[in-house]
């Protein structure tokens, strides 16, 4: 095998191993039950000992937690009452979106939250706007008729320090960190979403094709999230509707080593932010933000490395040709 092919193969393997080895296999030893929602949903309710509380149209059964029924103008949410102090974590969500609406006649979707406050109803998939923390949106209805470059349902991520609104009319484009189009409605099999945060990196994976295989949706570095926030899920319907069901939410602690400097800082005082790339506020003529508008995903990193490698190869070939011609020219003088 030529050297160039070996280098390309190595880069390819490094890219996929860095992505797919990240998602945990669900080691029960690292399952944090105080942050997990599992059948038969014990500990859900309004009692002082409850670990989960719910609001609105949410219905808790023995088989699922239905955030909204397939009815118009409904909102519901469920929230963990225990703040999470894990620095590195991974949440596996089994969900089901289904309803009687045909293509493009359903909505609106659901969201996963890791935020400073909980149980604050509002216009963002049943939760408050200008939130502080992390949101993962599973948006099933297109509002921006100009944005035809993507299909719906669409999964996206947003980090907010409370200063940014979520723009429903533009499907959150101005504050989106990254996303992917995934068909998740009316599936006969289980559908899963994995959210991982570790050492400043946010990774979102999906398993929706009944292949027992995680696929990358978002992979972003430079993300800063504090500890002490709450996990939750919410959903909303409007003129169109769907059943939005949460089957389980399983939280895993990731065993990651940190530097002494990282361990010594007060993680509860960190302000949610994303660095490295330009701010999405640049898209709305406000250069003061510190959030980025597009992700440097694993694919982009791979393409950058590939372009750099091709550049090196081209330079080497050109250099060899020039050197050979100079050698031939020098021979003519002897």
From TrEMBL:
Sorted UniProt keywords: Disulfide bond, Glycoprotein, Golgi apparatus, Lectin, Membrane, Metal-binding, Signal, Transmembrane, Transmembrane helix
Lineage of source species: Eukaryota, Metazoa, Chordata, Craniata, Vertebrata
Signal peptide boundaries: 1-21
Alphabetized CDD domains for the sequence: lectin_VIP36_VIPL (cd06901)
Compartments where found: Endomembrane system; Golgi apparatus membrane
Entry's transmembrane regions: 301-323
Superkingdom of the source species: Eukaryota
UniProt entry tagged with the keyword Isomerase: no
A single MF term (Gene Ontology): carbohydrate binding
GO cellular component: Golgi membrane
The protein's name in its UniProt record: Lectin, mannose-binding 2
UniProt membrane topology term: Single-pass type I membrane protein; Single-pass membrane protein
Domain L-type lectin-like: 29-254
Species: Danio rerio (Zebrafish)
């Amino acid at each position: 095998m030529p050297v160039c092919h070996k280098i390309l193969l190595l880069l390819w393997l490094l890219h996929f191993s860095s992505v797919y080895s990240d998602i945990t296999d669900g080691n029960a030893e690292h399952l944090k039950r105080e942050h997990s929602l599992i059948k038969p949903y014990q500990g859900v309710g309004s009692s002082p000992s409850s670990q989960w509380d719910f609001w609105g149209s949410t219905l808790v059964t023995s088989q699922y937690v239905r955030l909204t029924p397939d009815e118009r103008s409904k909102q519901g949410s469920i929230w963990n009452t225990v703040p999470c102090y894990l620095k590195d974590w991974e949440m596996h969500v089994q969900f089901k979106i289904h309803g009687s609406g045909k293509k493009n006649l359903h909505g609106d979707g659901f969201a996963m939250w890791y935020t400073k406050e909980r149980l604050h109803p509002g216009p963002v998939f049943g939760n408050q706007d200008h939130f502080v923390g992390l949101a993962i949106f599973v948006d099933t209805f297109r509002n921006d008729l100009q944005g035809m470059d993507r299909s719906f349902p669409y999964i996206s991520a947003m980090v907010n320090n409370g200063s940014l609104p979520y723009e429903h009319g533009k499907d959150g484009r101005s504050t989106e960190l990254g996303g992917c189009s995934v068909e998740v409605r009316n599936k006969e099999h289980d559908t899963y979403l994995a959210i991982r945060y570790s050492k400043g990196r946010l990774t979102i994976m999906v398993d929706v094709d009944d292949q027992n295989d995680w696929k990358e949706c978002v992979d972003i570095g430079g993300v800063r999230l504090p500890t002490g926030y709450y996990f939750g899920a919410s959903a909303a319907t409007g003129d169109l509707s769907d059943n939005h069901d949460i089957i389980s939410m399983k939280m895993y602690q990731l065993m990651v080593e940190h530097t002494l400097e990282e361990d010594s800082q007060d993680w509860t005082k960190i302000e949610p932010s994303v660095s490295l790339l330009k701010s999405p506020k640049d898209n709305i003529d406000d250069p003061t933000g510190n959030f980025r508008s597009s992700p440097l995903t694993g694919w982009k990193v791979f393409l950058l490395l590939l372009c750099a490698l091709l550049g090196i190869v081209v330079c080497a070939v050109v250099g060899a040709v020039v050197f050979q011609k100079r050698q031939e020219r020098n021979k003519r003088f002897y």
